[in-house]
Amino acid sequence: MLRCVALVERRRPGHHQWEGGSFDYGQKWWRIRQQALERDGYACQHCGADRDDLRRNPDVHHCQPVRSFDRLEDAHTLDNVVTLCRSCHRRAEAGTIAVSAEDKK
């Protein structure tokens, strides 16, 4: 079931969230991220690729962008995140695929 990476460090100019420095998502993020990976079986909830296919853990995407919250910690809830492979995560960020809490693989 699809549910709704955060980038801890904005690495380069041209990235959609680049602001010229690092950004701390806080301890709650790391707990929610781990819970989402476990909930979603370490698999992309859009295409189904798992960590064995990817040779890494999938990303965890915020359905409602972190920047839309007044308080950072309010963005980090299990019903606002979904596990996606890097490719699907990029497409979700670009708006070429839609992900939501109610969609299924």
Topology diagram in text:
Layout: H1 27-39, H2 51-54, E1 59-62, H3 72-75, E2 81-84, H4 86-94
Antiparallel strand pairs: 1-2
β-strand amount: 5-15%
Average pLDDT, rounded to a whole number, is 81
* General form: globular
Helix percent reads 25-40%
Tell me which oligomeric state these chains represent: single chain
Low-confidence stretches: 1-11
Walkthrough of the structure:
With 105 residues, the protein is α+β, with helices and mostly antiparallel strands. It has four helices and two strands; from the N terminus they run H-H-E-H-E-H. The radius of gyration is 13 Å and the shape is globular. The N and C termini lie close together (6 Å). Mean pLDDT is 81; it is low at 1-11.
Gist of the model:
The protein is of the alpha+beta class and 105 residues long. The chain is built from four helices and two strands; from the N terminus they run H-H-E-H-E-H.
Features:
105 residues; alpha+beta; two-stranded antiparallel ribbon; 4 helices; 2 strands; globular
